[in-house]
Design brief:
Oligomer: single chain
Distance between the termini: 49 Å
CATH architecture: Sandwich
Structural class: mainly beta
CATH superfamily: Jelly Rolls
Order of helices and strands: EEEEEEEEEEEEEEEEEEEEEEEEEEH
CATH topology: Jelly Rolls
Number of domains: 1
Helix content: under 10%
Number of strands: 26
CATH class: Mainly Beta
Shape: globular
Strand content: over 45%
Number of helices: 1
Length: about 280
């Protein structure tokens, strides 16, 4: 059986940080969350004015952030003493856990800065674990060649090849390129929430189309199968995860299970003990 689509989401144009322009697809008015995914943004512009203000120092608690840089250069620095530079094709995997304060600031470059940020929820019993940070170099992301394209395995396993991302819950993250007219088919765990986001071309899924800038939500059972248009190549990410099925309380940069825990996070931050 092939998974069809539940819905197609357009997302909204907005800004975050110090004014970085982006498209918010998960975490916006159309789709508040898709358990365990709390947020999914695409940022991208060839105008430095749209992103040079970056994301100055700000806190997080209770989840993980996964930033995948297609083009450009951003510098990360956090309260745990970690520093790194995201460059073309690299991934930053940060576990906020009990608390981290970090910044993501663009390095001065000409031209395009483009990528994605995903927020991945942590289960209740792991929300207060120690923060962690992993810079994943492009050379460490395996690229699996298929008959009609390629799959970069950022996390999870594709055709027996495991990606370097190490989430704390069941999850996969693939960047897929299909040649014009090509198709791909692969299994996904039943009842895992899975989506496709198209960033170039368009995808055909069970007689429905997902166009550039759209996110398609798959149904919860069956194989994933889709194809590219005959006239153009397709670039997309396909991301899936095991639902936590736990209460979610959100307050700005904090995601916990209760409102009381959110208030405690704000209090800890204001008192300077968020990361203690």
């Amino acid at each position: 059986m092939i998974r069809g689509l539940l819905n197609v989401i357009e997302g909204v144009e907005t800004s975050d940080g110090a004014g970085v322009k982006l498209r918010r697809i998960i975490g916006g008015p159309e789709l508040n969350m898709f358990d365990p995914f709390l947020l999914f943004d695409e940022f991208g512009s060839d105008n430095p004015d749209d992103y040079m203000a970056g994301f100055p120092s700000h806190p997080h608690r209770g989840f993980e952030t996964v930033t995948y840089m297609l083009n450009g250069k951003f510098k990360h620095k956090d309260s745990s003493g970690n520093e790194g530079v995201l460059t073309d094709g690299s991934v930053q995997w940060m576990t906020a856990g009990r608390g981290v304060i970090h910044s993501e600031m663009p390095e001065k470059t000409d031209g395009l800065a483009r990528g994605f940020q995903l927020w991945l929820n942590l289960p209740k019993n792991l929300k207060m674990i120690d923060p962690a940070y992993n810079d994943i170099h492009p050379d460490d992301i395996p690229c699996v060649l298929i008959k009609q394209g390629e799959v970069k395995v950022i996390s999870g396993t594709f055709n027996g090849v495991e990606g370097p991302g190490r989430p704390h819950t069941g999850m996969f993250y693939f960047d897929i390129k299909l040649n014009a007219g090509g198709f791909i088919e692969f299994p996904v765990e039943d009842f895992w929430n899975t989506f496709i986001y198209v960033y170039s071309g368009s995808a055909n899924i069970e007689n429905r189309k997902v166009y550039k800038g759209q996110l398609g939500l798959f149904k919860d059972s069956g194989m994933i199968k889709f194809s590219a248009e005959d006239s153009s190549n397709l670039r997309c990410v396909v991301i899936g995860g095991e639902p936590l099925n736990e209460p979610v309380a959100r307050g700005g940069p904090f995601v916990m299970n209760t409102k009381a825990e959110i208030m405690k996070a704000f209090s800890d931050y204001q008192e300077g003990v968020l990361t203690k």
